[in-house]
Amino acid sequence: MDSLELIKNKFKNDNYAKKFDIVLDDLKEDFVKMHMKLTPEMNNFHGRPHGGAIYSLADAAFSIIGNNQNNISVALDCNIYYHASPNPGEILYVKGERLKQSRKIGTYLFTIYVEVNGKQEKIATMTSNLYRTGKPHDSNLEVG
Questions:
Q1: Cα 36-56-110 angle, rounded to 5 deg
Q2: The pTM is what?
Q3: What does the pLDDT look like over 74-116, one tens digit per residue?
């Protein structure tokens, strides 16, 4: 098993992500794509998807891409910027990429969007930084 398979297996046991039915679509060392359906339970009192639900998808992607090198990593900060409100019932997607990584710090950019008539409509963007502890998820694998 390599570090990507390790984090995919760990994600299968993420109860918070399960509650939102978040699906991992693609994972590489420096890229992640996920999605979830915006259900009525995710609506706020305006009848629109809650910002917390949108953030949850981005944060799930952050946890996967940030921990995919067998190096336990924790968030230092996340800044999300909302650009539009998705419609209830739509499929919400997130793509994340690593912008920069040092021995201890990683910086990431996430784009959250819906697809409308084959085009991506941007809903939010999030920038995030994490601290890489240097401790492995699995001591049998090399720490990246």
A1: 85
A2: 0.95
A3: 999 999 999 999 999 999 999 999 999 999 999 999 999 999 9
Residues of the domain holding 19: 3-132
Rounded distance between C-alpha atoms, residue 95 and residue 106, angstroms: 16
Domain count, the chain: 1
Nearest CA-CA partner of 42 in 92, 78, 95, 96: 92
